[in-house]
Amino acid sequence: MSNLKYVHGRVICSVNLEGKNTHKFADGTVIRLERQFNEFNRRITEPVNGVVISAENIPEGSEILISHNALHESNRIYNHTKLSGKEEASDIKYYSLPEEDCFAWRGKDGELKPMKNFAFALRVFRPYWGMIKVISITKLENVLYITTGELAGNVCNVLKASDYEIIFQGADGREDRLIRCRHYEDEINDREEVIAISHSLTDELKEGKLFIGLANNNSKSLKEYYG
After folding, report:
1. Where are the extended beta strands (E) located within 25-117?
2. Nearest partner of 163 among 136, 220, 125, judged by Cα
3. Which of 4, 16, 79 is closest to 47 using CA atoms?
4. Average pLDDT of the residues of the chain
5. Per DSSP, which regions of 67-193 are E strands?
6. Which residue, 64, 70, 98, 71, is CA-closest to 168?
7. Closest Cα partner for 5 from 93, 66, 94?
8. pLDDT digits (tens, 9 = 90+) for 173-191
9. Distance from C-alpha of 148 to C-alpha of 201, rounded to nearest angstrom
10. What are the residue boundaries of the structural domains of the chain, listed by start?
């Protein structure tokens, strides 16, 4: 696909439209996982894993995670090859996506990295302690623990609905999840979602009074989470 080249502000990638509809067990067995028939949450049903064909800041062939609403016809690339029945029947399609619809990419080290103007995060929870153990855990609203970039290691206040959870196929062939928010490190932008660093909540987290994680049932203290 070397005949396809990006233009500024866009990323060209290929996407397997059926790639999210499988599950791989530890022994290598792969089964079909139908998502479209009993689920109305498009973040769960729609494919978000792609492969970079051409981009300004990402190496060709890198895995990329995109918005669950990015794969519409206005972004699809047609007529990039001679008419072929094999091409038309393939589940792999090609798209030119705005950079703001691309959230993360996987480097050569296998680690997912945020795209420019995004940061990864974890939710923050306040446990209620009883005499012996934690009785209940409550998620703090509009608060995220930032794990990448210049704000890494800080608990931050964010705008409402900044907590976007990407549901994707992990490198092991199973469903994985990642939280991202918008953060513009080197510019002022109206779409900025981080509004303040909360030093008091950050201190509470370091003292073990708060938990972090994707959900309350897997949240842990900072020390436990990073082992």
Report:
1. 30-32, 49-54, 63-66, 92-98, 102-106, 112-114
2. 125
3. 16
4. 92
5. 92-98, 102-106, 112-114, 118-129, 134-146, 155-158, 164-169, 175-182
6. 64
7. 94
8. 999 999 999 999 988 999 9
9. 18
10. 10-114, 118-225
